[in-house]
Amino acid sequence: MSIEEKVVLARRVITMERDAATDWEGILVRGERIVRLVRRRDLADLDDGTREIIDLGDRVLMPGFVDVHAHAEVVCRTAYRTVDCRAPECDTVPAVLDTLAGAEPGGRSDWIVGQANLFFDRKLKEGRLPTRGELDTVSRERPIALRAGGHITVLNTRALEVAGIDRTFVPPTHSITGPVTVERDAHGDPTGIVKEMDVLLPLPSPSATELAEAIEDGLGRYFTRYGVTTIGEISETVGGLQAMNELALAGRLPASMRIYLWVPGTMSLEQVPHWRDHLSFTAPESAIRIQGVKMFSDGGFSARSAAVNCCYKDAGDFRGNIAFPKYFLRRALRICQDNGLQLAVHANGDRAQDWLSRSVAELGGAGGGRQRVRIEHAGNLMPNPQTAELWAAAGIVPVPQPVFLYTFGEYFPDYLGEYGLKGRFPFRTLLEAGWRLSGSSDVWIGSEREATNPFFSIWCCLMRQTYSGGFIDIDEAITLEQALRMHTIDAASVLGEEDQKGSLAPGKMADIIALDHDPFEIDVDALRGIGVDFVMARGSVVRSKTAGRF
């Protein structure tokens, strides 16, 4: 006989509910939901043989983490024919070349794809990317693509040939990630560096079976092990989304997936109202559902394609470009409103955020609940505090990424001069002004190895330490309580699900994790090393150290 009710016990419970009692020691779960919180002295009344008792001893319980912006499929499939060239393990150009040279043997048409960090040129000791000629020393027979964070890629000569990129090549004006650039030398020949072109390159893809296996393995490796139980997934492929649905039907999807259809990557804007013609989602919505649409209004700082209010250093009056016109935004807003979807727009630069906020306000505002418009990366760089007033006028939700403080926060001045020293991740200022902030990974190819660990993101909020070991505007550090809320209940609010997720309370989803240390009882530097021994997602145990489920 299956046991529908479970009691999860520990030393204490961090509920993330305001004004909650602090002496709770357990949680009674029925099906997918929390029935009530309990204390150990209540166990005699609860243990009547009809409930499963899960006693985790001196562990600490808290709600599962909510990662509202991730590219889970992308990070899961990086293990497929991808060579890890990330710093600090590969911290010199020769080390990168040696690692690429160790790729699995293949034929002339078999790509060698390297995964390198975002802002890789800043993290290599030479202070530059490997050149086309240096990649040619690894192979002139096989195409090589060194993907530095998804916005910049270095190609060898063979890869340029396969991709059809020569001196006569005319790139499209923009791709789904921003304006496209092919760098050229003084003679007009491609140097091998291309920007915002990864989706246009004929890179290898896994089969449907390989993709499903990669997603199942990767969700456990990159998310479940760190206690993430809900993911705002920026979709990659229709096949990947279908694989997630099949995993959910089989009871093997360890996190609730809230899917944002990448337009025009996964499908076109015109296809969005008819997404059911392209996807067959038959699993319960508690496990997986289409949440919204994701679009790019500009590119990335590493590619100098983020739209900013100043000029890039050594680039004349260039300030980046807005990727689509207002009429396209109007159509996207209408489609989302008519179909109960949430619009999420990538806007790295402050000019892109200002333009987007003004446009949304002119078009009637950002809506509410699950349909409230999100601006991705708003709050990462705010040289002008008035940008937040434009957010407010539009009614948008800012969605910053604390992990980027570590990843590239120190490099803003390299691209923007003194302008890049202003308003870097001003979380304390924004919280004190009344903004509700979330924390998310935006994990993609080239992310730091700890990017999907929410405790690493929380550590970033408190320590504000950079990749090179320096510190950024420590007066903007926030409290541990605030940082935990950014990754739980306040993250759930971005999805319009704070009534269902993000805290431990009766009636909410039973997304529960157990920690091997109490975050309130250890040094800040130890936060990023907290282990998650137990994960319950929607009432099912998906990770348990005692049961050997890893």
UniProtKB/TrEMBL annotation:
This is Amidohydrolase family protein. Pfam families: Amidohydro_3 (PF07969). Residues 52-542 form the Amidohydrolase domain. It comes from Ancylobacter moscoviensis.
